[in-house]
Design goal:
It is a single chain. This protein has 13 helices and five strands. A hairpin with a 4-residue loop joins strand 3 and strand 4. Keywords: Cell cycle, Cell division, Chromosome partition, Cytoplasm, DNA integration, DNA recombination, DNA-binding.
Amino acid sequence: MAGHFELRKNIDKYLKYMTFVKSASPLTIKHYSLDLKQAFDYENNSRIFTEAELLTTARAAFNGWAGLSLASRNRKAATLKSFFSWAFEENLTERDLSFQITAPKVPKKLPHFLSVDEVLSVLKTFEGEDAAPLKEKVLFLLLYGGGLRISEACALKWADIHWAQKVFRIKGKGSKERVVALPKLTLEVLERWRKESGDEEYVFGAEPLNTRTAYEMVRHSGKRAGLLKPLHPHALRHSFATHLLSSGANLRVLQELLGHESLSATEKYTHLGIDHLARTMESLHPLGNKTKVS
């Protein structure tokens, strides 16, 4: 009944709703659970709340998160807003308290991506006598060659790969499925890896590859190649998108390849490398270096 809020019971119901109805990813559910249980002292709070108490408690928790980064505070605010919106829709509150929670504005950053030369430098580390392990090459090519998220690459199964069509089916965020084309090099390396690693269910073994292990593998790949900045998995996904777009790929096509729900999430890749912009200006602008000034 609206006005009498059973905190623990409703948090549990909300998390089940996000899991089974909204098909939120396990990582998202983990964050939602952590945020709500921190905000409302879940373990020690089994009493019934009034709406005023609910809002006061949420605001106090949000103020207590002041020392966190803007991105973390923004995520926690989004959790509270989502929880309150759900409660209102379920007639558990008389007002939609989500409007009382203000998320801090997070400055938009251009995604970090590698240049083509940096990608080639990493690929060279997988050649020769002192070559890096083939397993690391497979991971690198799934992230850069297929634009996969690290969680998607780690959980990829051999059954997801359709060799004849040269594609694989990926179940991404919110259990949304998409088809990703395999570049020739990625396909060839996957075939080699399958012969060497045996016929397990997952590409990286009998069970999904641990994401922390995958992060370390990518970081080592960048370090061996002598990259100036530490290499992270998402930088390879950004590089996949940036290089495709700068080569003429359609933004809608890129949206499908990346598995973005909205085009706005893909539009951040409309930036191009500064070197690419400079070359375009020089070659195409009337005042470029091909123009002679008398």
